[in-house]
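Annex B.
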Amino acid sequence: MKKIYAPWEKAFKKVSTPFEHFLHAQTTTGLILIFMTILALILANSPLAESYAHFFHTRIDLDVGSWELAHTIHHWINDGLMAIFFFIIGLEIKREVLVGELSNIKVAILPILAAVGGMLFPALIYFSINAGTEGANGWGIPMATDIAFAISALVLLGKRVPTALVTFLVALAIVDDLGAVLVIALFYTEQIHMLPLALAGGAFLILILFNRFGIHMILPYFIVGLLMWFFMLESGVHATIAGVIAALAIPSRPKLAPANFRADTKVLLDEYDTYPKDEGHGLHERQKAILLKIQDSIKAIGTPASRLEHDLHLPVALIVIPLFALANAGIAIDFSSIGTTIMTPVSLGIVMGLILGKVLGIFGVAWLAIKFKIAVLPKGSSMNQIFGVAFLAGIGFTMSIFVADLAFIGNSELIFQAKVGILAASLSAGLFGYFWLRFIAKSKVEES
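Na(+)/H(+) antiporter NhaA: predicted structure tokens.
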């Protein structure tokens, strides 16, 4: 029977490296995001709109004696589940810095500079449009790039784009995520309560000690990390920041030295072969023990950070991000007034920031860095393709919506205007970037 693959699955049939697995996960996330966003928009504009809104505003209370933690489902998703998403971001940042594109400054300098430009220009354009208005606080909204959507578009282009261009976008998006985390922590915190913040700092110190003492079990990190999340929630600093900070403490060094793995495994396999094969009675008890020992060695040569990143990508892709999209992307659209909404300062600032700002910041800064020989183009790519990637980076979506909820907390009208701008800009930037790279841009090899 012939196997049938989804369009993106066949390309990843031979996934072998962690980076390729990462791309596969991001592509899957992006495709699911599209589906959930469309579903949220359908529900918000259907007879089920009231039930849809009511469901996400249902309160879930946790009471233990006099202690109470009460939030709506919407709040639990944005402050609770999204902490896992930010934990993944933290792990990705750490991996890129230690062994990825950001570990080599000569390679990293271009995406770093482009990412900084891609954050500053959108913020400046937005603020110039909204200065002096109640929407001015939303300057951080167009700074973000949705890594899942952007990478999905590139990966679906297949061999039309060089691998180096994909790694450039990944590195750029990782730096962008780091910038977004810092903006949330520093500028979208209304009031700080010092005692819970100090307790969160103490929890982080314990995580660091776990790392230094060589503890590789996940459970201790989970328990203390959960406590840190709670203290961060109570401190006034957005609780999702705890996810990023906790990720930095997860060990990235293997328990077993890679140099010893081959020799140790060979000894075990040689011993395994000394026992006679008995098809009727299965494995010898000692052989079973040897296989378990090899299994433990395989776990020991890996790191808790890489293992968690691998294990959490699927639940984040299939549960966390889809729920976030379902809870946040649903806006009731009055098509007769959509043009008026787009022209409000908030929506217009976001559209101009995510499209014009990202292109000026990423393409403009990259062009200058290459012209003045500060950096070099990714191997096999062209400035034409960097231009297309700059548009793809204008897909803000997940992080932009997240920042909008923080920037305009309690102001449903501005949040609505922001979401309209985010959806319009992300759709426009994504489609233009995709079609530019597919039909217009050429690689450096094709141009020569």
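Residues 153 and 434 are 6 Å apart (CA to CA). Confidence is low (pLDDT under 50) at residues 1-16. Further annotation is deferred to the next reporting cycle.
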